[in-house]
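A protein record pairs a chain with a discrete description of its three-dimensional fold. The following entry can be read in just this way.
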Amino acid sequence: MFCDMRREGIQPSSVTLLSLLSGVTELTYLQCLHGCAVLYGFESDITLLNSILNVYGKCGRVEDARDLFEYMDGRDIVSWNSLISGYSQTGNIREVFQLLRKMRVEGILPDKQTYASAVSVAATESDLKLGKSVHGQILRTGFELDSHVETALIVMYLKCSNIDIAVQIFERTANKDVVLWTAMISGLVQNDSADRALHVFGQMLQSRTEPSSATIASALAACGQLGSLDLGTSIHGYVLRQGMRLDIPAQNSLVSMYAKCARLEQSRAVFERIGKRDLVSWNAIVAGYAQNGHLREALVLFSEMRATLQKPDSLTVVSLLQACASLGALHQGKWIHNFTMRSCLRPCILIDTALVDMYSKCGDLDRAHKCFVEMSNQDLVSWSTIISGYGCHGKAETALRMVFPEPAVDVLGILLDACRTKGNEELGNIIAEEIFTLRPMDAGNYVQLAHSYASMNRWDGVGEAWTQMRSLGLKKLPGWSFIELHGTVTTFFTDHNTNPQYDDMVSILKMLSWEMSKSSIDYINQTVDC
């Protein structure tokens, strides 16, 4: 219609161009409209130029946006915010904060949108120091935080793994919208705090805030982390009762949740109902079968995936290699190795490390070493994997001869365990000294050393390790576990009696122990009589 309008000789106004810009997503169309703005003399229309500036940023052409910004005679707060937002989306912290300083020099005061962009770029780069700096500036200016800025701050603190401050901001927020709730739940899941994420999800439902598809996806991911089938099925039931239409990411999360809870039939049923399966859908179902030890079915699904012309990625291959490693399926592992070479998926540190692990656990140490040597980049995980492979097969001396770039306590701990298994006391003492040199204040190292001495019947060494640990005032963090019952997740710590039902649990355990002992005696008596 715009072309027809021009053919009929009707000159468009700036409002016409503004309305067209709202739907532009491709650079070519944007450049045409920018040219029209220049052609028809709208270069002084700041509203139109701000809109063009904003769309340049959204198209990823920040340098073009900067050129337009510098060309503009008059700039308002929207102009600054549009350019800062563009740099924020590309993760350019340096330019964002330079523009913030330049704003103050030119007498332009930042507003909520400005600070939201600055917080977002700190979150993208996981830069806690800069994020706190911006948060401090916001508090000093006396802005009343709106939901947009609060959400940006919560996301920033969660991405920087500072959960406590994120929770404080969240709890102080009076009017929580669905975006804020979802950001909190998703961030907690990403910080391995699935139990807290589900607690927040419960609060959200109690507040009568209707969850979005993204909220459901995060809540299901939390259930998958905990292996909480009851809660996962409850959320699935809620979705069905409410008649919600889940998007592909949420359906993928549902597939993954059932698979992690070892309910492969339900996982497969959900997968089959997904209309347009993407790479994540296929990875979820393939990994589900692989992680539950069903390698044959996982490989069948892998073949179906390739038949649909969906190209596997590193995560697909790694899940299959991990299954081969756990099952000792060397033949299938070699086939997957060949596939990665034919598909040009290597070099990839995830795949390369998984190959080393697979060959090591399948007993082919020569091929594991070859894969390790061929790696273009070796990190701590890959070093730990190859050394663990040697250690588990009684070749700690061979592992120790490998020259790794810097001593790593985790790697040396694997070697110490190998010495304990093989009774190599002399080498174990050398490794133990190296561990304490690197990390002298870690209680876990003393516990590991005590266990090593105990396995060798070196009780003097056990006593010395415990004595040294106590003299330094070190305490090992207690072991813990959790159980889910009737949709509630309860955490237990070793030697803690703070649970309100502690006495009841002890009483029941004593009763069960007595009944088991009585049943054992009765069984022995019956066997003797026979």
Remarks:
- The longest helix spans residues 502-529.
- Strands lie at 480-485, 488-493.
- The first strand starts at residue 480 and ends at 485.
